[in-house]
Amino acid sequence: MTTPEAAPSAVAPRATVEARTRMSPRKRARISRGIQYGLLVVAVVVLAVSIDWSRVGDQIFNVEAAQDLFPKIPRAFLNTLMYTAAAFAVGLSLGTVLALMKLSSVGVYRWLATIYIEFFRGIPALLVVIAFAYAVPIALGVSISSLTLKAALALGMVSAAYIAETLRAGIEAVPRGQIEAARSLGMSHGRTLLTVVIPQAFRIVLPPMTNEIILLTKDTSLIYLMGLLPTQFDLTKIGRDALSSGSGGGLTGLFVAGIGYLCITIPLGLLARWLEKRTGKGSRS
């Protein structure tokens, strides 16, 4: 007597139906992405409908007010670049010394570098700028007449704390074998640092160093607290003056200043990414 085989034939169609109705991972991802795009479009439409465009055009994107600022923009742009370059020069010089002190075998040097780095990384740059503008002349009885020098010292001292940690990481990333090879050739410790370690460390830290320049560029917006002469204004100063002048345009001056900062920071950001890719390719090869 044979056993009926009805059960397997009944299960097979059910499994086929489940396989057809089961959604593939690619299809689920496509649907999820479509939902996200749909929600984004809805949010943009709601925001666009909610904005009072006539008021925005008058108070933020006022073309006439922006045109009135154009004669001042080149000078403000150059001043901003000058303050950034001067502050970075101070920060890089002091940061290199601090990084070497942090890696020194002398305990006092390590402690001094650590205290400096933690102090200036822990307080806002705003307080340092105000201190250089008002507290330092009172405490030391010395008045620095050059705004560029004051800005470079104030922002450079803050930047040095971050640059020191970046350089320290770069120095520690240099292969130990190259240091030992240089010492085996009879090079002194100082010559090994100057000719072998530091050049390679700078190459390693170029991308994060570019990001530090971007941060410094934005920190120059605090220089107005030191008091600016008519020829010393930066991008933030012309934006603030346009806002407080009452000549119309509202926030247009600040918008123009923001565009000016973007013209500096976006190329620097692209340069940082390019250097990061180039450094990565060099390390792999």
Automatic annotation (TrEMBL):
<dbReference type="InterPro" id="IPR043429">
    <property type="entry name" value="ArtM/GltK/GlnP/TcyL/YhdX-like"/>
</dbReference>
<protein>
    <submittedName>
        <fullName>Amino acid ABC transporter permease</fullName>
    </submittedName>
</protein>
<feature type="transmembrane region" description="Helical">
    <location>
        <begin position="37"/>
        <end position="56"/>
    </location>
</feature>
<dbReference type="InterPro" id="IPR000515">
    <property type="entry name" value="MetI-like"/>
</dbReference>
<keyword id="KW-1133">Transmembrane helix</keyword>
<feature type="domain" description="ABC transmembrane type-1">
    <location>
        <begin position="77"/>
        <end position="272"/>
    </location>
</feature>
<dbReference type="InterPro" id="IPR035906">
    <property type="entry name" value="MetI-like_sf"/>
</dbReference>
<feature type="transmembrane region" description="Helical">
    <location>
        <begin position="76"/>
        <end position="101"/>
    </location>
</feature>
<keyword id="KW-0029">Amino-acid transport</keyword>
<dbReference type="InterPro" id="IPR010065">
    <property type="entry name" value="AA_ABC_transptr_permease_3TM"/>
</dbReference>
<keyword id="KW-0813">Transport</keyword>
<keyword id="KW-0812">Transmembrane</keyword>
<dbReference type="GO" id="GO:0043190">
    <property type="term" value="C:ATP-binding cassette (ABC) transporter complex"/>
</dbReference>
<comment type="similarity">
    <text>Belongs to the binding-protein-dependent transport system permease family.</text>
</comment>
<keyword id="KW-0472">Membrane</keyword>
<dbReference type="Pfam" id="PF00528">
    <property type="entry name" value="BPD_transp_1"/>
</dbReference>
<feature type="transmembrane region" description="Helical">
    <location>
        <begin position="253"/>
        <end position="275"/>
    </location>
</feature>
<dbReference type="GO" id="GO:0006865">
    <property type="term" value="P:amino acid transport"/>
</dbReference>
<keyword id="KW-1003">Cell membrane</keyword>
<feature type="transmembrane region" description="Helical">
    <location>
        <begin position="113"/>
        <end position="136"/>
    </location>
</feature>
<dbReference type="GO" id="GO:0022857">
    <property type="term" value="F:transmembrane transporter activity"/>
</dbReference>
